[in-house]
Amino acid sequence: MVTTERMAKDPAREDLLVLVDGLDREIGTATKERAHSEGLLHRAFSVVLVREGADGLETLISQRAEGKYHSAGLWANSCCSHPRAGEELLDAARRRAREELGCEVSDLHEVSAFAYRAEFDDGLSEYEFDHVIVARSEGELSPDPSEVSDVRWVSFDELAKDLAAHPRKFSAWAPMALSLAMSSFR
């Protein structure tokens, strides 16, 4: 099992994640560290916060903190993570919005799901069945600097152009998760 220095510092590395098959049926559990070290398919979610802006719908994107064990410094959807074993998907999304962004969320609903695999230079990988959840934020944001280095609200049009022109600025899952979220409004 590959363990990087950054993964060793992740306080959630021992969380039990839900392993799934290609149809998102639960087949077991593994620690977060093992799932990412061995490339095991596991359940994940991407929360996309949406609001009405001056020029139409906007979404909140977040820049991953430099200390993250992968994809550090890249832009992603509002927040993301994994439901823990025994935790309902939408409860996990609410928990993670509080932990990463310091906000409560409402009107959560799943709009799509997809599987993806991404290999990283340090030997870790993401192999996730990712559920895309759209929600609205409640109150002011207070991002955790160990998780998020920056956030910004962007219009759907601006984001679509940025995803097409600069895909390397984004995490491996962000283009698909954000595109699926935005298309659910059209």
Word description of this protein:
This protein has 5 helices and 9 strands, in the order αββαββββαβββαα. The chain has 186 residues and is an alpha+beta fold. β3 and β4 form a beta hairpin. The longest helix is centred in the middle third of the chain and has 13 residues, at 89-101. It is globular. The model has no long low-confidence stretch (mean pLDDT 92).
Name the features.
single chain, about 190 residues, alpha+beta, seven-stranded mixed sheet, two-stranded antiparallel ribbon, 5 helices, about 40% strand
How would you summarize what this structure contains?
The chain is an alpha+beta fold and 186 residues long.
What's the helix and strand layout?
Blueprint: H1 5-8, E1 16-20, E2 26-31, H2 32-38, E3 42-53, E4 56-64, E5 75-76, E6 79-81, H3 89-101, E7 104-119, E8 125-138, E9 148-155, H4 156-165, H5 174-183
Parallel strand pairs: 3-8
Antiparallel strand pairs: 1-2, 3-4, 3-6, 4-5, 4-9, 7-8
